[in-house]
Specification:
This protein has 2 helices and 2 strands. β1 and β2 form a beta hairpin. The protein is 36% helix and 6% strand.
């Protein structure tokens, strides 16, 4: 089984104020729009940020991004 990367999204923190989940969700939304796909059709989310705050770290952050963008 292989994975095809169809798009990449980046959110610049100095343009968007917010928490890491918000910035990551914005990057994911940009990526989804560029790839022209429905969030429900996404099989895997790869989040390449490094984050640990208030006992939340990877991969838990990816599941929070998944919820924010409406992916199943």
């Amino acid at each position: 089984m292989g994975i095809v990367i169809e798009s990449v999204g980046i959110a610049k923190p100095w343009l968007l104020k917010g928490k890491t989940v918000n910035l990551s969700s914005k990057a994911a939304t940009i990526c989804i729009k560029k790839a022209n796909v429905d969030p429900c059709s996404i099989d895997i989310i790869i989040n390449s940020s490094v984050y640990k705050h208030k006992h939340i770290g990877e991969p838990a952050l990816a599941s929070m991004i998944q919820k924010e963008i409406g992916a199943n």
